[in-house]
Amino acid sequence: MSDTDNLCFDATKIDKLQELREHGVTAYPYTFERKDTVREIRERFAGIGHEKSAEEVSTAGRIYVVRQHGKTIFADMGDSDGKIQLYLRKNDLGEEQFDLFRQYIDAGDIVGVVGHVFRTKMGEITIWVDRFELLTKSICPLPEKFHGLKNVEARYRQRYLDLIMNEDSRETFRTRSRIISLLRQFLFERDYLEFETPTLQPIYGGANARPFTTHHHALDQKLYLRIAPELYLKRLVVGGFDKVFEIAKNFRNEDIDTNHNPEFSMVEIYEAYRDYNDMMDLTEGIFSYLVEEVHGKITCSFAGHDLDFARPWRRLTMEEAVREYAGIDIHAHSVEELRAFGLAHCVEGSESAATRGEFLALFFDHFGEKHLIQPTFVYDFPIENSPLAKKHREKEGLTERFELFIAGMEMANGFSELNDPLDQKARLEAQDAKRRRGDLEAQMIDYDFINALGYGMPPTGGVGIGIDRLVMLLTGKESIKEILLFPQMKTASPGQNEPEPGQNNGEE
RNA sequence: GGGCCUGUAGCUUAGUUCGGCAGAGCGACGGACUCUUAAUCCGUAGGCCAAGGGUUCAAAUCCCUUCAGGCCCGCCA
Question: What is the pLDDT of residue A488?
């Protein structure tokens, strides 16, 4: 495969680079003494008039547009949080430097400038450049200055270019960074400890999902990329850390769509001596704090919905949700009647479901989820699909588990953590039996985890919050690809995904 | 897995209905211009119309296959 299939280098720009070197110009110097950012200059000189400032400024950034006017040049330069106009004159720079800029500095290049600030006749705050230095020569053409980079696929595949060109995209990822930072701050202020647990796991667990597999050569052992950090974080609670959390990348071998990426971020939080009611309170606290910090108010709009995060939020049991949205009382009917109801309404899975609990979950998924627009906790899940949640203290066949729904999306999942080692052993054995029967999403038995419970885990509440969906919500982006810097995309050009000769690609 | 839609120059796109020389703007390159800002003016180059096959005197356009992407549904937390 030739270079030109993969590279967008511009022959003219490479020629310019070569000529610059012949002129003794260093195209890729090592440093530049930047004393001011664009934002600082804009703030400090907000009141500047047409007279040049006495004070000298020194800043650096990427050139976006060059407007040549014979013996003067205007250019727009931007750094990570702003753009500013440059003004260069042949009189000031001297013929040699001026011609160097005119000939060789293009949109896309990164330069450092030293000069004074003034406001042009048209009112634009501008740096009157005394001297400049090429800091990085760009040899790829920049997209068009006015329309920018719009092509969705190119924006995802070449995110760096998207970020260079689209301020809206930069703003989205600034917000993402801020959300994660605020989340940490919220938890640190409440004395939670942040830990990192293994991503490569010999036994996967903590969720129902199909894992990615890999192989460790020296150990000659199969390993899985984690589908959840849950079982390791609970070991920490057993070990005596009462308030822990992890912001974890999880990996699930599933299809990709507007709400799912194979690797995604989640915060999982565990706290001893708390139950699922406390974790619902905590979840409310986190979301309402973030909404208020990011939006400056307790509401936000998403996908055409006006969402109100003022506490307390609606809480209803799964039975109540099914009664309200499916119009059927689970307990008033036999399993046969429930099946007939399910079949009549084309509820997926109705043929094989065998218990009230299974029908409860099926009916909720079918009728309930899409109606839950305003923040709503649904709680008390059937035991059948909650192998890590504690049995309900009063209700037979249910667990103390909740999920949070906002705008029809599942945003969080938590429970009173199962800490009875014998119960946990039985439930994981049941999962493993399903797995051996071919259920690709059922869990394995982690005996070491069961053993840890055997030493005694205090009563514990836990919750996992999907960070990507949280960021979608707070940035108003309806596709997960818009809020992931590098969403998973199928390899575009043939040959790029093939293993190097003589190497094992690590797949099982 | 199913449905709908998209792919034309570096970027943004017209042309596809109804087959008839592949067009524009920006960008690039050369030239003019000392307060412009989507600068302006003059000139030049740049295309295997996603890939492959078919129908036709003639295909960007019609048909088939493939690739990549978007949206919706299914599966999935």
Answer: 93
A268-284: pLDDT as tens digits: 999 999 999 999 999 99
Q: Which amino acid is at A14?
A: I
Please report, for residues A248, A256, A267, the alpha-carbon distance to residue A443 in angstroms, rounded to integers and kept in the order given: 19, 22, 20
Instruction: Say whether the CB atom of A4 is under 7 angstroms from strand B.
Output: no
CA of A258 to C1' of B71 (A): 9
CATH entry, A9-142, from 2.40.50.140, 3.20.20.140, 1.20.1250.20, 3.40.50.880: 2.40.50.140
Computed from CA positions of residues A232, A234, A236, A241, in that sequence, does the dihedral angle turn out positive or negative? positive
- Report pLDDT digits (tens) over A311-339: 999 999 999 999 998 889 988 899 999 98
pLDDT of A498 strictly over 80: no
Alpha-carbon dihedral sign for residues A96, A97, A100, A102: negative
A16 CB inside 7 Å of strand B: yes
- What pLDDT digit, counting tens, does each position of A446-479 carry? 999 999 999 999 999 999 999 999 999 999 999 9
Classify domain A167-313+374-482 at the CATH superfamily level.
Bira Bifunctional Protein; Domain 2 (3.30.930.10)
